[in-house]
């Protein structure tokens, strides 16, 4: 019997360093693209803490270290986002920023397709209006 190590999306992406680039680029796009003004207003000007939280969440979500859970417990994504009115427009703005950030990060087509589908499913689940 042999041990088979599963390669996670986190590993395939390139681990913490590349994930950090993705998260930082996501928020940079959000801050600079007028098409994302709606969700930018929800986040405020100082995105230092939310950048770290998204990085920590995505680390575990992609199969890497469970940084968010270790610090804050279960993500409870919908509950944490309930104070914000999230409809199709906000979902689409979030996806616009994430897809553009992903386009700037080298990754396999298979990983890109997997992440696009997973992000869209999650972003759509966050809608509460």
UniProtKB/TrEMBL annotation:
Keyword Heme: yes
Lineage: Bacteria, Pseudomonadati, Pseudomonadota, Betaproteobacteria, Neisseriales
SUPFAM superfamilies recorded: Globin-like
Family: Belongs to the truncated hemoglobin family. Group II subfamily.
Keywords: Heme, Iron, Metal-binding, Transport
Domain of life: Bacteria
PANTHER family: TWO-ON-TWO HEMOGLOBIN-3
Name assigned to this protein: Group II truncated hemoglobin
């Amino acid at each position: 019997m042999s041990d088979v190590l599963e390669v996670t999306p986190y590993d395939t992406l390139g681990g913490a360093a590349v994930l950090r680039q993705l998260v930082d680029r996501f928020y940079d796009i959000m801050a600079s693209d007028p098409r994302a003004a709606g969700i930018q207003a929800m986040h405020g000007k100082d995105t230092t803490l939310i950048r770290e939280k998204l990085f920590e969440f995505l680390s575990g979500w992609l199969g890497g270290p469970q940084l968010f859970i270790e610090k804050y417990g279960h993500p409870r994504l919908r509950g944490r986002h309930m104070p914000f009115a999230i409809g199709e427009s906000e979902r689409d703005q979030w996806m616009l920023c994430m897809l553009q950030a992903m386009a700037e990060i080298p990754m396999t087509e298979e990983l890109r397709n997997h992440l696009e589908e997973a992000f869209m499913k999650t972003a759509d689940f966050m809608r509460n209006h």
